[in-house]
Amino acid sequence: MNISFKQLSGAMLALGLLSAAHAADKIAADLVLTKATLIDVAGGKAVKGKSVVLKGDTILAVVDDKQLVNYAAKKTISLPGKYVMPGLWDTHVHFGGGPALIDENKHLLQLYLAYGITAVRDCSGDLPDTVLQWRDEVNQRKLEGPTIFTSAAKLEGYKPLWKGTIEVGTPEEVSRALDKLQSQKVDFVKITENTLKPEIYLEALRQAKERGMRTSGHIPVQLTLKTMFDAGLGTVEHQSYLLRASTPREEELTAQVAAGKITSKEAVKQSLDSYDEATARSSFRYMASKGTAVVPTLSVSRVVAYLDHDDHAHDEALQYIGAGLRATYDWRVQRAAQDDATAIAQRKAVFEKSASLLPILQQEGVSIIAGTDAGFLNSYDYPGQALHDEIGLYVNYGLTPAQALQSAVINGPRFLGKLDHYGALEAGKAADVLVLDANPLQDISATRKIRTVISHGNLYDRARLDKILADTKAWAAKTTAP
């Protein structure tokens, strides 16, 4: 069969049009991550043969590799031998130290990203308005840093120990405080107990629950853990509080503290002495049934417990912290230095027993949410690094690597009601992504081996992450304490 040049040209044109039409049918994307192993955190599984397709700050799709022909991406990164997982959350951080340290605190934002932390939950400091502003600027892409969820100012009693609080002593004052916090669109309510009357603490929980606001707090020494669970407390901040729920004598010891017959320190000692695993398990089952979670903050607790062994003067992470924030570490160091041998032994015993509760809490169904207490005041509890230390301790004390990852990826968003947007590599969720050099399901320390961080549509490769660290180190070296 003879085909003329005109017929051949027409056929080629038709093929060209078909090719163009096919290209137009492809789904536009910004970035494809392919050839890596994906980490299914919820399932605790490593998944091969799938690629992650990103558009802007959202995961467009997670597809079988062969389906990539359906996408037209501006950039494709092939990652053989690498592991891709959702970004990490530190759900207990603090920004503070007064107005003079605003700039030093602001420098922590990119530092968090350099360590793979793509979201933080600020549990109140003395810069609440500044943090609210940063939250909005990050969300509006005007400021680079992790997504910030914040309580803004915490609730406390009159003449509180902590600065940056809303002082309340009556139901009416609680109501006005919550009005203010709601107007600021806080993500949860933080309540501490130093000078807050127990009945007003419970009133704050009642009113917050009535308004649909999540709550988080320390535990008053005059109230039992069961009372707090029944009142609807969302999270217990600091696992050491749960020692009180692990003794059959909890009600007796709580009543004695409330009556002024013994100190809270003595109550903790007697709780340790009367520890009973069956009681602990029963208490934690009840805690889980009421939906109360725990944020352990083991990393800072361990640092303080063992300050007699390590003064942290040569910590590599110290070089990224401004001089003003470093100076705030002194107060815990000085307090610990006053402890005699008995007190040192006691603080170590409290830490070790508290940490040993982790697998029991997990087995009884309590949600464990990774948080570090990093920020001002908390000595050598380094923003960014501390989260890796924290989840490493979880594994050391009995959790599996998968459970530790769930605490730092899934359980925080669940507490805040944000699982529709975070916690997994799934279509429609935030493109907060880590690329790692090793498998964190096999060794939790792999979370430290970061190759790439993706946050708010920004890609930070290893060179860019190293530059953040180098720039932060150079900046910190020039700071002086106010």
From TrEMBL:
This is Amidohydrolase family protein. It comes from the Bacteria. One of its GO terms (molecular function) is hydrolase activity, acting on carbon-nitrogen (but not peptide) bonds. Residues 1-23 form the signal peptide. Pfam families: Amidohydro_1 (PF01979). Residues 83-458 form the Amidohydrolase-related domain. Keywords: Hydrolase, Signal.
